[in-house]
């Protein structure tokens, strides 16, 4: 896809390219046998054989003239599979306000996400390889097992599904030829304590999955992982950076020059919390 130019982005376009990057990223997880990313009764849905979060998720919805009926068919589909799933909704959905419809079906708001974009050319992001006693390196294929374990820990993937998670995540992981994602890993004394992922899709550089473990916070590591990934996006010729921020990280991204362009909301069944 052609790189999106900052000069071509008005308010609605900025939100749209953010969502397109997210959709492009999730579609990467559908490359494994038994997985799919596509329409399900009006829902843009990632489905996998895993009966666990977050590997089955709705990531967009067009209810047409029967939103209640279409939503019920999506829920019935996953009930028949006996598979829990998440539902991410944004202003791109139809209807735009999905909250009452999802809450009526026993889903709760697990996390709000602020959709943000920035002009990479004006940010001058810096590559950082060392933060105190923590070393940052770019991920290679040799880091796959460690990275998958870290992602599985973050998303509470049950041990029974770890083998399938490895298969699914490997299809998307950076460090392989022609991969459309790159990742940076932070280690202290050999232990992984943080990561960031840059997904080049939808014409923009999307920042995803910035994770810092509790023991490595408040030392600037999140900032370093972020700017290192963004610097790679700029070097690759991208102008627009996009992300979905948790409430905890929004001030960090704003300080770097990101602006809010919309909101997204992750809904989940009662037993799941981010």
Could you provide a short overview of the structure?
The chain is built from eight helices and twelve strands.
Structural commentary:
The chain has 274 residues and is of the alpha+beta class. It folds into two domains: 10-113, no CATH class; 118-262, Aminopeptidase, CATH 3.40.630.30. The chain contains eight helices and twelve strands. It has helices at 11-27, 67-81, 99-103, 120-123, 144-154, 162-170, 221-235, 250-256; strands at 36-40, 43-47, 57-61, 86-90, 107-119, 130-131, 134-138, 181-188, 191-201, 204-212, 240-245, 259-269. The protein has a twelve-stranded mixed sheet with strand order 1-2-3-4-12-5-11-10-9-8-7-6, with helices on both faces. A hairpin with a 2-residue loop joins strand 1 (36-40) and strand 2 (43-47). The longest helix has 17 residues, at 11-27. The model has no long low-confidence stretch (mean pLDDT 91).
The secondary-structure class comes to: alpha+beta
Return the string of H and E elements: HEEEHEHEHEEHHEEEHEHE
The domain tally reads: 2
Strand content: 25-35%
Output the strand order for the largest sheet: 1-2-3-4-12-5-11-10-9-8-7-6
Distance between the termini: 32 Å
Total number of strands: 12
Radius of gyration: 18 Å
User: Can you identify the CATH class of the largest domain?
Assistant: Alpha Beta
Largest sheet: 12 strands, mixed
Question: What form results from the Cα inertia axes?
Answer: globular
Low-confidence stretches: none
Mean pLDDT: 91
Full CATH superfamily name of the largest domain:
Gcn5-related N-acetyltransferase (GNAT)
The third-level CATH topology of the largest domain is: Aminopeptidase
The amount of helix comes to: 25-40%
Gross CATH architecture of the largest domain:
3-Layer(aba) Sandwich
Our count of helices gives 8
């Amino acid at each position: 896809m052609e790189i999106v130019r900052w000069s071509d982005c008005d308010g609605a376009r900025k939100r749209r390219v953010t969502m397109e990057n997210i959709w492009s990223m999730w579609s990467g997880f559908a490359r494994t046998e038994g997985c799919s990313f596509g329409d399900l009764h009006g829902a843009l849905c990632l489905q996998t054989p895993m009966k666990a979060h977050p590997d089955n998720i709705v990531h967009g919805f067009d209810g047409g003239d029967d939103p209640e009926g279409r939503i019920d068919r999506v829920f019935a589909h996953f009930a028949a599979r006996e598979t829990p799933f998440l539902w991410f909704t944004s202003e791109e959905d139809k209807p735009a306000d999905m909250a009452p419809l999802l809450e009526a079906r026993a889903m709760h708001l697990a996390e709000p996400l602020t959709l943000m974009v920035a002009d990479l050319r004006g940010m001058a992001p810096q590559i950082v390889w060392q933060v105190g006693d923590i070393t940052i390196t770019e991920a290679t294929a040799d880091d796959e097992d460690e990275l998958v374990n870290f992602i599985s820990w973050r998303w509470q993937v049950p041990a029974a599904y770890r083998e399938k998670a490895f298969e699914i995540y490997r299809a998307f992981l950076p460090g392989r030829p022609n991969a459309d994602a790159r990742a940076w890993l932070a280690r202290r004394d050999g232990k992984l304590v943080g990561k960031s992922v840059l997904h080049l899709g939808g014409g923009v550089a999307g920042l995803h999955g910035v994770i810092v473990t509790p023991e490595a916070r408040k030392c600037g590591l999140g900032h370093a992982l972020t700017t290192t990934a963004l610097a790679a996006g700029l070097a690759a010729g991208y102008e627009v950076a996009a992300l979905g921020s948790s409430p905890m990280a929004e001030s960090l991204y704003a300080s770097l020059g990101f602006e809010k362009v919309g909101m997204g909301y992750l809904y989940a069944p009662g037993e799941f919390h981010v």
